[in-house]
## 1
Amino acid sequence: MVGSGQGSIVREGQGKRFDFPFGNRGEVKGDVAAGLSFGFFRSTLPPGAGMPFLHLHRSMDEAFYIAGGEVEYRLGDRYETGGAGAGVLIPAGVPHCFRAVGDVAATVVVMTGDPRGVDMIVELAAAGQGDPARFATILAKYDSELLETRPHWTAS
């Protein structure tokens, strides 16, 4: 990770890359290793991909900027879809999950209120998709909770 304590530009390909088994691909742009007090990454979501398990973070806010495509979110009991240019703000404690909708991949830029949120995402990506118990264990390590043990949405 590029980080000097004096500011830096993390160019395409310089960040740690991760792939979710759901189809998401991402690249870490900032985390604890960069000396930041927040986490920052970009993710590409093919149609139907995202984070299909309803979950919450007890002590971490998240913000998503949708740079392209459309993404459907469950936020608490509401369902909302945002397109390119939309910002999605998820305070700590709000149950959520999301998926790309439409015919093209969506690109999201995500900031986590705790820089370790990026570590959590990378661990979840490495865990595979078939074991909700493993997801629950990883989420618990980061003061988060898995609320459903089956994907919220069926495959598109």
Note: The chain has a mean pLDDT of 87.
## 2
Amino acid sequence: MACIRLFTMSSSRTPPTRLSEPSQGRWQVDSGTMADLNTLPRRRYTNGPTALDHLERLSRQLGGPQIWIKRDDQLGLTQGGNKTRKLEFLIADALAQGADTLVTAGGVQSNHCRLTLSAARREGLECHLVLEEDLGSDGAPIPADAGGNPPEHTGNFLLFDLLGADSVEVHPNGSDLIARAHELAGELKAQGRNPYVISVGGSNVTGALGYVDCAQELLTQFAEVGLDVSSIVTPSGSAGMQAGLIVGLHSAGSQIPVVGINVSRSQEEQEPKIVGLVDEVASFLELPSVPRERSLGLGDYFGTGYALPSPEMVEAVRLFAQTEGILLDPVYTGKAAAGLIDLVRQGRFGTDDHVVFIHSGGVPGLYARAGAFA
């Protein structure tokens, strides 16, 4: 069975090397080995596949490969985003266990927390959020006010209010949020609730199934238009999206590589995280293991730190907006797009390549970091 290919990339600007060589039929699938998700419990929050659009003006502006975009920012639930795919499986699992309450964690501008809360509202569940304070552009924590709110009641934090979170805690940056989430779940259980804790980013085996499914959706779209895709480029943060795509493509016999642009930690820290989740997902689905030396491609483009603005991110957000009318967010897609643009400029893709960029959403966070674009 064909495997995902390895690319080693870093911000050290190694000499240009083609990320992929000309091939034929990378999108072609082996339906006999494709992961079968139909027997797993699942909720549906989106009708039909998200769009796959050709970014003609951006491609022409950069003078490199033909760039396509998978519009997962248009998924269902409040303001969309990639976590919706994960939550279709996570919420189904919670309901199967009789949960009446969700507990999850993230930053004060967490897209995952927004979408988890939105799903809870859709299902009639309670939802409690455990958050950590944000960092300013200088990397110093922005402390919450006396009421536990960040200084700017905007972006996703505003949506937490509008969606009516049952409780919101804001802790100092660097706190062990998941430990507190489980502690809170214990408190809620003592009060007679039946809580279900969802990991940060929804990035566990159950959540990653959403992107195993997305890989199959993409392969179907490629086949429908006869598109020979050279690479899929994604933000790589909590790892669930990239791991799910890798396993989904691998299970279908596809050779399309998944290039993860790191947005939150160094390659040395991120790689074991993704390898471990890839192994867990493949094992859960009873699939052949994905050889780790051939499964990952990471680039270090997170700048001075997670969620901290960088000039390259600002350029990428402006370029997508001004060539295609598409908004990116400053934390994930903006930095991933900056990585993609840098790779194009290095000559790491050929002009005959077709590269698909996954738009994972997160646009509400743009308004919370408007100062980066002043």
Note: The first helix runs from residue 56 to 62.
